[in-house]
Amino acid sequence: MSHVEREKQKLVARIKRIRGQVDAIERSLSSGDDCADVLMLLANVRGGVNSLMAEVLEDHIRLHMLTEKSSLPPTELAEDLIDLVRAYLK
């Protein structure tokens, strides 16, 4: 169980970093910084969120889909994975 707790702590730490990045965007917009600087901050947040989404999605696949649905035929499992990726990575 401690392994799961360490993973949760890592994910929470990532969210805190993203929150700090969003705060930096707000400060940058409020102070009238250059558009290029704001765009770079936005790209950083997008990268952080995408990375977090990928990690949580990977954990979901490994911990839930591949164990709970292991009795599914490979083609049905593949379709479930494709649906999952399409739903969350739009």
From TrEMBL:
GO biological process: negative regulation of DNA-templated transcription
GO MF, one example: DNA binding
Cross-referenced Pfam families: Trns_repr_metal
Coiled coil: 1-28
Alphabetical UniProt keywords: Coiled coil
CDD domains linked: RcnR-FrmR-like_DUF156 (cd10153)
Family statement drawn from the similarity comment of this UniProt entry: Belongs to the FrmR/RcnR family.
The protein, known as: Metal/formaldehyde-sensitive transcriptional repressor
Native source species: Alloacidobacterium dinghuense
Species classification: Bacteria, Pseudomonadati, Acidobacteriota, Terriglobia, Terriglobales
